[in-house]
Design goal:
Chain A is of the alpha/beta class. Helix content of chain A is about 40%, strand content about 15%. In chain A, strands 2-1-3-4-8-7 form a six-stranded parallel beta sheet, sandwiched between helices. In chain A, strand 7, helix 7 and strand 8 form a beta-alpha-beta unit. In chain A, helix 5 runs parallel beside helix 6. The mean pLDDT of chain A is about 95. Chain B has one domain: Rossmann fold, CATH 3.40.50. In chain B, helix 6 links the parallel strand 5 and strand 6. Chain B is globular and about 50 Å long. Chain B starts with 8 loop residues before the first helix and ends in a 7-residue tail after the last helix. Classes of the chains: A alpha/beta, B alpha/beta.
Chain lengths: ~200, ~180
């Protein structure tokens, strides 16, 4: 049994509901696996879902944030996915995009592959790493009150912002069958860019 | 008297090709061959040059750039091509356009044996990862090849890698 890192009782679907309920015109990128399925419950053309390319979510967020400085960009991913792309915390910390926020749904597990513990279960502090990398805001979220504050900051605080949200190990069924990458990309671009998407 | 590397006029040719292609985001892991180009991209107020910790970050970043309506290019040395393999599934599955410029080591006159493995396999690795791979070995053709590759990438929505031969980049004379 892993020691874990303290309270992690928040429900991942409730967290994503709270986040996406206030998205307005924000652009969203998800990691693969559970975070894709969580966001899929609230499907939107301006959500780009990853079904693979583990470790890509944060950097897709950076490229998108640089291209769309007038829009909020929210990356919703898992702890395993974030750990695979740790170098991107340094790249984003150095670049400092003010419109980028990353939320990690941290269940301290690789849920898709058999519930093996990730390094966050062994005490690795993702928010601490983001802070040390130069993120303007970086915090760990464990309570409903902290989540409320986090949701506001995700959309309004000058970023880059990083929130490690400790969620329970609850697994939910796949919510979304949309998985064709070219379609997900084209749908996103057409909704954002209109006719220019296919120029 | 050691031979000097040829002057890198082709760096300016790549920069000009980038401007014709309306490249905005330039992601890179530094390579000596791209020194001047990296400086020029940072100096251009209309470009966003981003230094990466690993080449695979650039594949993801350019996917994000394209989602947001901007064109990008990724600069790397051949040693970085292997780092990109799984990330290139993004480009293949989603048909993201991607212009990758790879300066080769381990290719011609290489002195460092550790560069051979990736230098000799870069083209094959990138082809297997779904890239169209083109190669240029003459300095005076670099700009033209990069422009043509960029047009193909952004018009057909595919990753195109241009390998710039070590004979163009220049090599260190290792003789005593």
């Amino acid at each position: 049994m892993m020691a874990g890192t303290g309270t992690r009782n928040l429900d991942r679907r409730e967290v994503v509901k709270a986040l996406l309920g206030q998205r307005e015109d924000a652009l969203v990128v998800t990691g693969l696996g559970s975070s894709c399925y969580d966001a899929g419950v609230y499907d939107h053309p301006n959500t780009f879902y990853l079904w693979g390319a583990m470790g890509a979510a944060a950097m897709i967020g950076l490229g998108l944030a640089l291209a769309q400085p007038g829009r909020r960009v929210l990356v919703i991913t898992g702890d395993g996915e974030m750990l695979m792309g740790l170098g991107s915390l340094a790249t984003i910390g150095a670049q400092k995009p003010p419109n980028l926020a990353i939320v990690v749904l941290d269940n301290e597990l690789y849920a898709e592959t058999g519930m093996q513990p990730t390094h966050t279960a062994r005490g690795v502090d993702l928010a601490g790493m983001a802070k040390a990398a130069g993120f303007a805001v970086a915090d760990t979220v464990r309570t409903d009150d902290a989540l409320d504050a986090c949701v506001g900051q995700v959309y309004r605080t000058p970023g880059p912002a990083f929130f490690d949200v400790k969620v329970s190990a609850t697994r939910y069924p796949m919510s979304i069958r949309l998985r064709d990458g070219a379609h997900i990309k084209n749908r996103f671009r057409e909704n954002l860019l209109g006719k220019k998407a296919f120029d | 008297m050691k031979a000097e590397n040829p002057p890198r006029v082709w760096a300016q040719d790549i920069y000009n090709a980038f401007k014709r292609l309306a490249i905005v985001q330039v992601a890179y892991v530094p390579d000596a061959g791209h020194t001047q180009l990296i400086l020029d991209c940072h100096a251009d107020a209309d470009m966003k040059a981003v230094s990466l910790t690993s080449e695979q970050e650039g594949v993801a970043m350019l996917a994000g750039a394209w989602l947001g309506g901007e064109r990008g290019a990724l600069l790397m040395q051949s040693s970085g091509a292997g780092n990109c393999v799984n990330m290139l599934s993004l480009a293949q599955e989603c048909r993201f356009p991607m212009l990758m410029l790879v300066t080769l080591r381990g290719d011609w006159g290489e002195f460092n044996p550790w560069q051979i493995a990736m230098g000799q396999s870069t083209g094959k690795v990138l082809e297997h990862a779904g890239c169209v791979v083109q190669r240029v070995d003459r300095a005076d053709e670099v700009g033209e090849v990069v422009f043509a590759a960029g047009q193909m990438a952004f018009s057909t929505n595919r990753p195109i890698a241009v390998l710039i031969g070590q004979r163009v980049v220049g090599f260190k004379d290792w003789s005593k």
